[in-house]
């Protein structure tokens, strides 16, 4: 086994600077998808604070109204603090995840009566969310108290600066260091200590936001820059704490007290507690913002001492501009992996959407290497895999093109999860296993790595034999609780489907719901094992076994069910083989009857966050089978059209992601070209409501990147559907191969950039040429083509081609049933 030394990623040559003259970070709009209220959360639950790529520390302000999954909402809500960690775009608890150890600035108050509690200190922003601005690596806002808040950060540390209004007479400024308030108010115990050197150390146990467990986090704040002892001006400090649990919002402030400690209770504790620091402020003028307090922070999951070490190691010098510039440079490096050679002439909105989406697609998962509280390992540790169900479709395939070095580390974190728990993690977040939504969708992620980088695995430091074993174990074994990790393989292997109303004799537990959608995802997971087995030259019997199992999705097809004039739908099934009927529109956006469509036992529909209407299209590895079951190309196309026109499409949720592209399989890439534009221009935009659903750890962001580039990845395969891009050219750079591949759209027509391209506009792909050789198919290319270096030319025109994808036998994208993916 070879390990790649840590730190290699940042020191490897990243190849040519593709946009040397351009400042791509300036094109990122961090506020897309931060509006309130849509889809059971904000219009995206986007996190607009300061963070480096794959950061553990995600520093941002929190508001006091929910839903606020990422702490922030672009509205007029009062601010309760600036806290150290957040999720990006997730669903889960509507109060949010993390939001731990917030700071809050209070101006001139009398020390023992300062309004330190969450309720008392909540303060409006000067102009609501118009007071906020951010660029990659930097966030700022202005409160009505006249206090400006700024943040910048590294992977596990950073700086937070408060600039107080100046007074003509000397005054005092205060900072609250809050021990207990995470976004969920779920404090279960912890402690805070203050040293006279102006160092505050904290530890706290809180509930995870999507699961049943708790986690313990640590932080360290320094308020004295050793290089500038005179600038600090700490004149007084103490603690505040609730007078009692029954009166949590009445506090006592105790000057000179240096510590508070609350034993772990197992219940959430409603108290208020923390530290209060007073800084002396010299007289100034109203114009001179001379009165600042800067805090350096570190976070950790190991100990508060480690949090201090993280701060000292990552921000050794309190040089704000250097920290911010280093963060910006890391982002520039990520963003320039997709370059626009013709940037000045591209549509400005598309450019903003592209770079804002590339940004969000690299915020998570979080690199928590050296911060794993549970086992020690030479491998990278990643968290905020929230959830693989969300990110396997687009985020990981995007990483596979542009970011193999980071991706290899993330894949290693998945494999290491199996190594230490027996199963591939599915939804690890806040360091703990979260709920399983459908399949164990780390499987298509690992399968994708095997098919794309299996031959380079040792170079990338991934023990590929372990990766394969992780896939097999997750495909074969049934954990004691498959609701938190793994799959209900007992049922899947015994029946070839997931039976409804069946008591598992193995004693394995889980919520026996979502039977049909779980089975459809299990089939894709088994396809991923099959693909890995082929790529890694595993035994013929493994290949045959998983090929066979991956086709078992057909066992949920009930040909007798009709809806809207179409026959045959995926349905639940009893152990005796009889189908259990659910209306195909149940749990669709136009479901006429209220149903529970999530995880609970009250989900009696059989589908998770999707309908039978939609999931009946989900077999990305054998779409020809679906077309056959649906009665052929023409019925399939008509049925897909009806799916869109009736409103079964749900732009904001993952099961819908593939749908605009499905016409490719029925030889109609022309319809896909129109659908992709319709979806992008109907549902996405650069406003705060510009994401149609939760961003889901960058899943929607990566989807939009693919739509813009005219690509859609087929899970666990080296195939990408190709279409009509929204930019005239782009270059993707692959770090490992040090290749640049330029895709040029011949006859690119900017008038097609609309929900409905005008008649006669050149929206349809006519031919695809890779390094001078015209391809038989205009519907797909190989991943090797997009990372292989050189030139891909997509010619577009006003008329759809007469022979669909092309006339060769393999012009259509692959399907297992047709002998594809050989
Ligand atoms: C993750 O953290 C490790 C340990 O500091 C570091 O070596 C690696 O470069 C980091 N990777 C990314 C993508 O930040
Ligand atoms: C990457 O390729 C560029 C030319 O495209 C070359 O200048 C550079 O030296 C290469 N870097 C490495 C590490 O091979
Ligand atoms: C990049 O653009 C931002 C926003 O326009 C600007 O603040 C920053 O100084 C620029 N940085 C560089 C290195 O040009
Ligand atoms: C600051 O607060 C103190 C105590 O409440 C008060 O005496 C003083 O006037 C205040 N100073 C200013 C500038 O408001
Ligand atoms: C919470 O934390 C405690 C102490 O670390 C631990 O014993 C317990 O198992 C955790 N989980 C839950 C669900 O309480
Ligand atoms: C800090 O202030 C003291 C007292 O005013 C002064 O003697 C000393 O030179 C100052 N130190 C620095 C580094 O400015
Ligand atoms: C600080 O105050 C709390 C609450 O009054 C008390 O329990 C604790 O012992 C004090 N700590 C110190 C170091 O005095
Ligand atoms: C899978 O294997 C079983 C048992 O050999 C067989 O009955 C079934 O037809 C196979 N399914 C497919 C799709 O080949
Ligand atoms: C199969 O089981 C279901 C549920 O118990 C029952 O309604 C149905 O009649 C059974 N079918 C047959 C053919 O026995
Ligand atoms: C598909 O829809 C078209 C247009 O509505 C219609 O003419 C055609 O008959 C339909 N095809 C089938 C097989 O139903």
TrEMBL record:
Q: Which keywords describe this protein according to UniProt?
A: Hydrolase, Signal
Which residue stretches belong to region Disordered?
803-822
Question: Is the Hydrolase keyword given for this protein?
Answer: yes
Residues annotated as domain Glycosyl hydrolase family: 306-797
Polar residues composition bias: residue spans? 812-822
Q: Identify the stretch annotated as signal peptide in this record.
A: 1-21
Q: What is the protein name stated in its UniProt record?
A: Glycoside hydrolase family 92 protein
The top of its lineage is:
Eukaryota, Fungi, Dikarya, Basidiomycota, Agaricomycotina
């Amino acid at each position: 086994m070879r390990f790649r030394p840590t730190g290699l990623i940042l020191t490897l040559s990243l190849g040519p600077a593709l946009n040397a003259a351009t400042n791509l970070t300036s094109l990122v709009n961090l506020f897309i998808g931060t509006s309130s209220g849509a889809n059971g959360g904000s219009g995206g639950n986007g996190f607009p604070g300061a963070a480096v790529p794959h950061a553990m520390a995600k520093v941002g302000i929190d508001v006091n109204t929910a839903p606020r999954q990422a702490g922030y909402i672009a509205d007029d809500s009062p601010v309760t603090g600036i806290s150290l960690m957040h999720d990006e775009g997730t669903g889960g608890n509507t109060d949010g995840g993390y939001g731990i150890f917030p700071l809050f600035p209070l101006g001139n108050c009398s020390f023992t009566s300062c309004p330190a509690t969450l309720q008392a200190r909540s303060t409006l922003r000067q102009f609501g969310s118009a007071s906020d601005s951010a660029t990659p690596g930097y966030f700022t806002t202005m409160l009505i108290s006249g206090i400006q808040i700024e943040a910048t950060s590294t992977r596990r540390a950073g700086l937070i600066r408060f600039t107080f209004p100046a007074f003509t007479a000397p005054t005092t400024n205060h900072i609250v260091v809050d021990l207990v308030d995470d976004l969920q108010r779920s404090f279960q115990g912890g402690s805070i200590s203050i040293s006279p050197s102006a160092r505050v150390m904290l530890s706290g146990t809180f509930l995870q936001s999507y699961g049943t467990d708790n986690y313990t986090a640590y932080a360290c704040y320094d308020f004295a820059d050793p290089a500038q002892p005179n600038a600090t001006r700490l004149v007084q400090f103490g603690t505040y704490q609730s007078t009692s649990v029954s009166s949590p919002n009445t506090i006592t402030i105790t000057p000179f007290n240096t510590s508070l400690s609350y034993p772990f209770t197992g219940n959430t504790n409603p108290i208020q507690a923390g530290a209060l620091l007073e800084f002396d402020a010299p007289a100034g003028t109203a114009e001179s913002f001379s009165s600042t307090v800067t805090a350096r922070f570190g976070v950790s999951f190991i100990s508060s001492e480690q949090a201090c070490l993280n701060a000292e190691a990552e921000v050794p010098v309190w040089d704000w501009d250097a920290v911010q510039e280093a963060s910006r440079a890391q982002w520039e490096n990520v963003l320039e992996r997709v370059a626009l050679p013709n940037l000045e002439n591209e549509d400005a909105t598309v450019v903003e959407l592209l770079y804002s989406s590339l940004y969000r697609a690299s915020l998570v998962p979080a690199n928590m290497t050296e911060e794993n509280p549970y086992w020690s390992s030479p491998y990278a540790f990643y968290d905020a895999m929230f959830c693989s169900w969300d990110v396997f479709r687009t985020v990981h395939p995007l990483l596979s093109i542009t970011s193999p070095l980071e991706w290899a580390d993330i894949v290693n974190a998945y494999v290491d999860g199996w190594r230490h728990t027996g199963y591939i993690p599915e939804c690890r977040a806040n360091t703990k296993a979260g709920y399983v939504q459908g399949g164990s969708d780390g499987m298509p992620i690992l399968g994708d790595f095997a098919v794309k980088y299996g031959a380079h695995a040792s170079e990338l430091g991934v023990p590929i034999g372990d990766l394969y074993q992780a896939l097999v174990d997750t495909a074969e074994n049934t954990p004691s609780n498959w609701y938190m990790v793994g799959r209900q393989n007992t049922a899947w292997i015994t029946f070839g489907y997931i039976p409804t109303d069946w008591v598992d004799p193995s004693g394995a537990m889980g919520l026996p719901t979502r039977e049909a959608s779980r089975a459809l995802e299990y089939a894709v997971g088994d396809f991923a094992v099959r693909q890995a087995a082929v790529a890694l030259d595993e035994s013929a019997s493994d290949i045959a076994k998983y090929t066979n199992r991956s086709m078992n999705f057909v066992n949920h097809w009930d040909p007798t069910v009709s809806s809207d004039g179409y026959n045959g739908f995926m349905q639940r099934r009893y152990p005796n083989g009889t189908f259990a009927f659910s209306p195909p529109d149940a749990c669709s956006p136009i479901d006429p009857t209220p149903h529970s469509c999530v995880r609970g036992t009250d989900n009696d529909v059989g589908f998770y966050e999707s309908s039978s209407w939609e999931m009946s299209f989900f077999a990305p590895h054998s779409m020809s089978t679906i077309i056959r079951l649906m009665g052929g190309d023409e019925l399939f196309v008509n049925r897909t059209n009806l799916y869109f026109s009736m409103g079964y499409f749900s732009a904001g949720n993952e099961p819908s992601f593939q749908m605009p592209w499905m016409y490719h399989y029925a030889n109609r890439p022309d319809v896909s070209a129109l659908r992709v534009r319709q979806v992008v221009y109907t549902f996405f935009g650069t406003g705060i409501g510009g994401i149609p659903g939760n961003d889901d750890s960058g899943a929607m962001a990566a989807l939009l990147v693919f739509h813009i580039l005219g690509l859609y990845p087929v899970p666990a395969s080296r195939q990408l559907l190709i279409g009509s891009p929204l930019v005239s050219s782009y270059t993707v750079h692959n770090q490992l191969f040090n290749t640049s591949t330029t895709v040029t759209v011949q006859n690119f027509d900017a008038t097609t950039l609309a929900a409905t391209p005008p008649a006669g506009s050149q929206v349809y792909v006519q031919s695809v040429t890779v390094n001078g050789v015209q391809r038989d198919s205009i519907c797909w290319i190989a991943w090797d083509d997009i990372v292989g270096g050189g030139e891909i030319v997509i010619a577009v025109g006003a008329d759809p081609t007469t022979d669909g994808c092309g006339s060769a036998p393999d012009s259509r994208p692959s399907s297992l049933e047709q002998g594809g993916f050989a």
